[in-house]
Amino acid sequence: NAGVMQNPRHLVRRRGQEARLRCSPMKGHSHVYWYRQLPEEGLKFMVYLQKENIIDESGMPKERFSAEFPKEGPSILRIQQVVRGDSAAYFCASSPKQGGTEAFFGQGTRLTVV
Amino acid sequence: QKEVEQDPGPLSVPEGAIVSLNCTYSNSAFQYFMWYRQYSRKGPELLMYTYSSGNKEDGRFTAQVDKSSKYISLFIRDSQPSDSATYLCAMSDSGGSNYKLTFGKGTLLTVNP
Q: For A26-74, how does the pLDDT look when each residue is reduced to its tens digit (9 = 90+)?
């Protein structure tokens, strides 16, 4: 089992560009969670998705951020018109059923906005 | 007041020392208490979790939860240089939002050989 795969590991974008972060959950996991880790801050919950459904997006900024988990393929976190404050590490986790205790985290994507 | 407070350290100890890491929290709805280890530039790795109050031991690691004080601890016995990492506490409730983890900022631990 390859674990939770995130790519790219590092992403550099200029202000105003779009960033697309991908997450392939562990085999057999249909629940995906995205977290953001800002410098000097703890991980913050962003969104919880099941296949084709957004279950809870209460932690997502209201504008420019969106997430999807299609029937086929990885989950995508999309950030439009990036700003310097979006620079952070974005982590994806997956689990076989709803719950935090069975969630495995990926290695993260480090987004740098220049 | 933040929901979860964790002393960021850094904490530096000699090899073989007993390490104590702590978090306090304010949300009385939290029922699951987790400890993660995060190596530099890596993702968090779950070490152990406890449901409600009490102790749990796994090898050199012991987790304690005191819900009356809203205080949790992780003890590492016979610490090793390979234990050098950032340790994150995380919590969730047991209801419909049990998937939503609230993390502390993490404590950076260095174990010196």
A: 999 999 999 999 988 889 999 999 988 999 999 999 999 999 999 999 9
Chain B residue with the nearest C-alpha to that of A42: B105
User: b/e string for B15-40 if b means 16 or more Cβ within 10 A?
Assistant: eebebebbbbbeeeebbbbbbbbbee
- Contact at CB, A45 and B100, closer than 8 angstroms: yes
Residue A94 tokens, joined: 């997956």
The answer to whether B44 contacts A105, with C-beta atoms less than 8 Å apart, is yes
CB contact under 8 A, B99 and A35: no
* Integer angstrom CA distances of residue B108 from A49, A92, B2, B45: 31, 22, 19, 15
B95 touches A: beta carbon within 8 Å:
no
Structure tokens given for A61: 């900024």
Given the structure tokens 């076989």, which residue do they identify? A96
Among A33, A101, A107, beta carbon nearest to B42 = A107
